[in-house]
Amino acid sequence: MFKKLVISAGIVGLMGSGAAMAMESAATTDLNLRQGPGPQYAIVGVIPAGAAVEVEGCVDAANWCQVTYEGNTGWSFGDYLTTKVGEEPMILTMDRTKTQVKTVVYEENKDAAAAAGGTMGAIADALIAGPAGAAVGMVAGAAAGGESAPDTKVTTYVTENPVDYIYLDGEVVVGAGVPDTVTVYPVPESEYSYAYINGVPVVINNADHSIVYIVR
């Protein structure tokens, strides 16, 4: 079970503030489920756009939330999760007073944390929130999923020509913007570039530097 995998990675405690029931939420886009609250942790699954999850809470200093999807518990980026406030959906981390999301404390063994980040350099910058992200100040009218793959020549080139991973604050989702400070690599004879970000290769639209596909 995934919770056992998390324990083996070095978590010594996860405590919620109170014993309230988990909050119902939904993913606004295809969203990674990770072993820990940050881009350096391994991806253990993907929550489909529109899928329901249960949220235990979010860490205070960042927008990473502990979620359970189909029996698997991990961490997802709260800027791409919504909950109902009255009858209206709201991004979970946009206004925590209104969404009443619980705060959880994540405690990790230092040696295990070093192992998890052993292949990770410093956080270089931050991804620009996608169309369903809190940074745009709105909730998308419909969940943004169903990644449309570029030509197989593009994805084959990306996988056969690996580059160094970089790590950015936030989460890799389709529609998120890659900052201009990040070095991207051209895909020959195409409108795309690529980079390896937060543990996965991503295909990037040259016109606006947005992620158009995640190679899983």
What is the CATH class name of the domain at 2-120? Mainly Beta
CATH domain fold name of the domain at 2-120: SH3 type barrels
What value does the average pLDDT take? 82
Shape: elongated
- Helical stretch tally: 4
Enumerate the spans where pLDDT stays under 50 for 5 or more consecutive residues: 1-19, 134-143
Radius of gyration: 17 Å
What gap, in angstroms, lies between the N and C termini?
A: 22 Å
List keywords for this structure.
216 residues; mainly beta; SH3 type barrels; 8-stranded mixed beta sheet; 6-stranded mixed beta sheet; 4 helices; 38% strand; disordered N terminus
Sequence-ordered SSE layout with sheet pairings:
Elements: H1 2-8, E1 11-16, E2 23-27, E3 31-34, E4 43-47, E5 52-59, E6 64-69, E7 72-77, E8 81-85, E9 88-91, H2 96-99, E10 103-108, H3 110-116, E11 123-126, H4 152-160, E12 165-169, E13 185-186, E14 192-197, E15 200-205, E16 211-214
Parallel strand pairs: 5-10, 11-12, 12-14
Antiparallel strand pairs: 1-10, 2-5, 2-8, 3-4, 5-6, 6-7, 8-9, 13-14, 14-15, 15-16
Polypeptide structure, described:
The chain has 216 residues and is mainly β. It is 12% helix and 38% strand. The strands form 3 sheets. Strands 1, 2, 5, 6, 7, 8, 9 and 10 form an 8-stranded mixed beta sheet that branches. Strands 11, 12, 13, 14, 15 and 16 form a 6-stranded mixed beta sheet that branches. The chain is elongated, with a radius of gyration of 17 Å.
Nutshell version of this structure?
The protein is mostly beta strands.
